[in-house]
Automatic annotation (TrEMBL):
It comes from Epilithonimonas mollis. It comes from the Bacteria. This is Uncharacterized protein.
């Protein structure tokens, strides 16, 4: 029975202590000086220096004010009261500046993320054009280079006659073969086809691939132009030959031996008498 009474008394004592400390804590939270400090340090105004001073016959009589803000207060308190406005949440306060800087950092982070996404997407696109497995699907290849480079694939790798070399006739082919020109043309053809094959089969950046396409196309045009020049030259020689054959007499003239210079002049006059 005594034990139960002791427990009840202990509980009553604890409850009383709880009520007493609870009231004290509430009183401290509602202390006017603390409230003024909160207002001063947040956003309302720089002031309300509680506790207030009290004077009697010009003498400070409020001990609390004298020890907090007055002559008996620490120098740091007086400097704080008389110093600049250091509210962290004022318009130009330090905390507001931090909030603004944080906002700017968030915007920069969004821009960085957007740029990173763009770089990633561009890298994926570049990777799609990097490999040789997707070269046939490239728009620029389909629109232009496929058609312009098609004659390279249609030209024989090792032409054996004038038809495969795209020459006009057999004499032209034999002449080029005799002079060694066909050997040099074959070497140039091998280089063109090898460059074309490399541009289609090797993994490389899209820009470099199209540069190789363009270089191959230029060399191919030069090669075709040289073949055309040989054909034109042969045709020109044949035309000259036909012209000469048409103007030369079919039989040799009878030899004559003039007796004197007078005879030579008369013979020339007789020959060109009706031509002019």
């Amino acid at each position: 029975m005594e034990t139960v009474l002791k427990k009840i008394q202990l509980l009553q004592l604890m409850f009383a202590c709880f009520l007493m400390f609870g009231q004290v804590s509430v009183k401290r939270l509602n202390d006017p000086s603390i409230v003024a400090q909160h207002k001063r340090m947040t956003f309302e105004s720089w002031g309300d220096w509680r506790p207030y001073p009290k004077y009697f016959l010009g003498i400070q009589t409020n001990f609390a004010y004298a020890t907090v803000w007055g002559m008996w207060s620490p120098s740091i308190n007086r400097h704080y009261k008389e110093g600049a406005d250091i509210r962290p949440l004022k318009t130009s306060g330090e905390q507001n500046l931090r909030f603004a800087q944080l906002k700017f950092q968030e915007e920069d982070a969004k821009k960085i993320n957007a740029a990173s996404d763009t770089i990633y997407k561009r890298s994926v696109q570049d990777l799609a054009h990097w490999t040789s497995a997707t070269v046939d699907a490239d728009p620029l290849w389909l629109l232009y280079y496929k058609r312009m480079l098609k004659p390279i694939t249609e030209f024989p790798d090792t032409p054996q006659n004038f038809t495969e070399w795209r020459l006009n006739d057999e004499p032209t082919y034999e002449a080029l073969k005799t002079t060694g020109t066909l050997k040099r043309l074959q070497e140039e053809l091998d280089l063109i086809k090898e460059k074309y094959s490399m541009s289609r089969s090797i993994d490389m950046p899209r820009g470099k691939r199209f540069i190789m396409y363009h270089e191959t196309l230029i060399r191919w045009r030069t090669f075709v132009k040289e073949l055309r020049r040989y054909n034109n030259r042969t045709m020109l020689l044949l035309d000259y030959k036909n012209i000469l054959n048409s103007h030369l007499p079919t039989a040799l003239p009878t030899p004559w031996t003039p007796a004197s210079d007078k005879g030579i002049v008369q013979n020339v006059i007789q020959q060109y008498k009706y031509r002019y």
